[in-house]
Model the fold of this input.
Amino acid sequence: MDLELIEYRKDGTPIWVELSIVPIFDNLGRLTHRVSWRRDITERKRAALLETDRNRVLELQVSGAPLPVTLEALSQLLRHQYPDAQPLLFLRHGETLSLAHADHLDTDQRGAMTELPLEFGNGSSAFAVWQAVPVVTDDAGSDPVWAKLSRLASRLLVHSAWAMPILHGESDTAIGALELHFRERRRASSADLERLGAIAKLAAAAIERTRLVQRLEEQSTRDSLTGLSNRFALEMRLEDSVESSAKRGSKLAVMQIDLDGFRQFNDTLGHGVGDELLVAVAARWRSLLPSKDLLARMGGDEFGLIAHHLESELEAATLARQLLKAMREPFELRGLELVLGASIGFAMYPEDGGDAATLIRHADTAMNVVKRHGKNDVQRFRTQMNTAAKERLELEVALRRALERSELEVYYQPQVNGAGQIVSLEALTYWNHPKEGMISPARFIPIAEESGLIIPLGLWVLERSCMQIARWRREGLNVSLAVNVNVQQFLRATSRKVWR
Done:
């Protein structure tokens, strides 16, 4: 029979031994005695455990496990290598060191090892990270390396402490440290330091890979300009929020927000000012919202908001109007005072939609209603809005075809003086729809402005008007002609060329 046991040498050092026991029988088959012997298998056992634990850490890296899980695996590796020690793992944050894992310490003890300045006297790990060298403390009670933590060392019964810096790549910059606490005096051999150095390299690779994965995940869910969550993150969070609200029977609101007047500032003052303005808006709104709510930049000058635990439409509308009120205070940027408004539409779960996609779409529909009716207001989604939105979309598609099929007609409305003489004319565009007949510009011009069709439509009207006034002048009619021009046309180079 073979057994593997941990025994201790006279100096308190644990060793692995293999105990072999062989029974001895007489000629009649009776057990007479046993023969046993021990073999020191410490190095073999350490190597086997190290390989197993190392593979576990590597598996966690590949699977993208969170950093705390990886640190727990590293701590277990250290416990297997040094059964008589208490392992601790520290991570560096700027010029301080914080305890990242030590499952044998209580809350107060962990707190005493948080945000330790990297300076002499703050323990073995602080000094190891500061100097990027291994630090072996035979007696923590008397070593000046522990001068500022001597009371803590006494409370923890720390006699000896070994610390190995975790270095970034091949550099001499430490990103953390491994530390072992012993209750008995332990001197570190060259083999111990070599082993800890190898474990520190494994820890460095694991920590850096985990942080890389976290950064990539952060980039995929974070708006780089404002620091807010992005559309993808909001959609994922909303799916979870809908699921949890369904279980609890609670409500939530989804808001879609468009900044009124932002594009004019962005186009006239430049994208640099525009970016600063978006950052300022995000910061102002974020300061008003509870941490449980999620504010996201959906793209461009549009934002989204998930507001949790709201009991009624009134609460949602009140929150939205608080966001509007916050916009009244001018934003001071580069010596300028800029004032923006906001069009806010919202949808309530579960009344206005039972899934994330529907809630976002309905909030967006309500926001567009606000934009069409004067902007800078709040509107909840109503079912009839879907019908109106569908009709507007159909009209937009038909308007695109109308431009291609020459269904638009320009009429010239005369302006007369008191004597009944024509002094000027105004160009008015009507749409001769094949099914609905003549459509007033009051109905289709707003759609053209929202969809961008106002640019080709405006150019078409301008060209027709120029051709008409040229024909009148050839016929001897000298009269001025007014053509309505949208602000979007002033900002387009193609339109300016036509005017010249």
